[in-house]
Amino acid sequence: MAALAGLCSCGKKAPAPVPPVPVATAQAVTKTMPLAVEAMGSVEAYNSLEIIPRVSGQILKLHFREGDEVQKDALLVTIDPAPFTETLREAAARLASDEATLVFKISEAERKNRLIGENGVSRSEFEKFRAEADAQKDIVQADRAVVEQARLNVGYCSICSPIPGRAGAYVVNQGGVVEANKTTLLVVNQVKPVYVTFAIPEKILPGIRTAQEKAVLTVEARVPGVNAQPRQGRLTFIDNTVDPATGMIRLKGTFDNTDAFLWPGLYVQVALIIGEEPGAVVVPASAVAKGPKGDLVFVVKVGGIAELRAVQVRRTAGDEVILDGGVSSGETVVTDGLNKLKDGAAIVIANTPASAATNAASGAR
């Protein structure tokens, strides 16, 4: 039995060592961070216009494609001008005839006026001719108004964009018949610049107004889930009423949006910068994990060991987190591979550790 026991003991193998876990890391730093009010917002067109014809008729040609970027005064739609051109010719001919009649009646009135002194006509006869000339003047004036309106209608057949922007989808196709002041041809949205609209609690408003008195406030907007630099604009509007139902007040930021990255209707994360916070300890947001008792990070110790620590998050600023404790400036934290780690696990760093300032989004990458 002893021999068998010894044989069994000799057959046991030592457990295989656990391989180190590959992780990405970044360095905690101390720096000045913007003091921001964060909210969710949406992008609005700087200007949005429905293009509606001012005359009725058939669409002769569409001069744009759906989604085209159009310039101010660019020709968009041509309505068949033939009926309006013919109306203009008729009105012009009527005007010419009535103007000739006016010249004749004025000359007759002047001739009768000269004959009064020679006792050739009576005063009442002269007054009759003068009244006819005056009435003809009114007719000519009305004819000129008709000609001008007909000329305008011919011009209205060429519909141009009143603003620069992006053309929407066709509402009426080529060959369709449109009704004056009723049919929508298309919608043009101006996206350079754009507005970003968001709402904040009313209790924050006094602080924003105080900061606004010192300088123009910066508004940052980022698209959730998109790894891109936040776009920066400026606060240009604070609504004049707090919504009594929600206790929120609406604000707007104006963004140049030269690359058209922000699109009308897009939901964005907004940060309104109202000041600065010096000496903040900062790590990438991807370094912080949620635990059952609070926020946690893995700190890289000497020898490539991951140490689990509880931290106190003061606030999040974009892709970075400001800590109140748990990690010191200069320490290295894990930003990618946290779900594979446990306290005391061996790790191998798969990237060159960088500071939080330059590698804030290392986990996302």
Question: Can you lay out the helices and strands and say which pair or pack?
Answer:
Blueprint: H1 2-11, E1 21-27, E2 29-51, E3 57-62, E4 69-70, E5 75-79, H2 82-117, H3 123-156, E6 158-160, E7 165-167, E8 177-178, E9 186-201, H4 205-214, E10 218-222, E11 231-238, E12 248-255, E13 267-284, E14 289-291, E15 294-301, E16 305-317, E17 320-325, E18 332-336, E19 347-349, E20 354-355
Parallel strand pairs: 1-19, 1-20
Antiparallel strand pairs: 1-18, 2-9, 2-13, 3-5, 3-8, 4-7, 5-6, 7-9, 9-12, 10-11, 10-13, 11-12, 13-17, 14-15, 15-16, 16-17
Helix pairs in contact: 2-3
Summarize the structure.
The protein is α+β, with helices and mostly antiparallel strands. Helix content is 25%, strand content 40%. It has a six-stranded antiparallel barrel.
User: Helix fraction?
Assistant: 10-25%
Strand order of the largest sheet: 2-9-12-11-10-13
Strand content: 35-45%
Mean pLDDT: 88
SSE pattern, N- to C-terminal: HEEEEEHHEEEEHEEEEEEEEEEE
Give me the number of helical elements: 4
Q: Helix/strand-derived class?
A: alpha+beta
Large-scale geometry: elongated
The counted number of beta strands is 20
Unreliable residue runs? 1-7, 357-365
CATH class of the largest domain: Mainly Beta
Distance between the termini: 61 Å
User: Mind telling me the C-alpha Rg?
Assistant: 39 Å
Q: Which topology of the largest domain does CATH recognise?
A: conserved putative lor/sdh protein from methanococcus maripaludis s2 fold
Oligomer: single chain
Report the CATH architecture of the largest domain: Beta Barrel
